[in-house]
Amino acid sequence: MSIVADIIEPRLMDIRITEEEIIAHLLDGRTISVPLAWSWRLSEATSAQRQNYEIIGDGLGVHWPEIDEDISVEGMLCGNPARPPKRGAPGLTGTLS
Fold it and tell me: Global pTM?
């Protein structure tokens, strides 16, 4: 016996970024959130930079052009935080805390 199931990828309808969380509203009615700290780039960005985003890939993810950050819905659902850069990596300036 075989079962055929349609696999529907979760897609973003809307996203909201607060000082503590990334809150995603999905087309299937779910709302998910992850800590802002999961993205070191967003954590270090200004509030204005955080609000300047584009939903990309027909709702598969979000892109912040000013800080070159991308987060996928799948990454949020699976719990994949971004790794901060190694200290002293070439081309990086500033300090990490």
Answer: 0.77
Neighbours of 34 (CB within 10 A): 18
Q: What are the structural domains of the chain? A: 12-78 (3.30.2020.40)
Q: Which residues of 42-76 are buried (b: 16+ CB within 10 A; e: fewer)?
A: bbebeeebbeebebeeebebbebeebebbbbbebb
Give pLDDT tens digits for 7-39. 778 999 999 999 999 999 999 999 999 999 999
Cα–Cα separations (whole angstroms), residue 6 to 9, 30, 59, 68: 10, 18, 18, 33
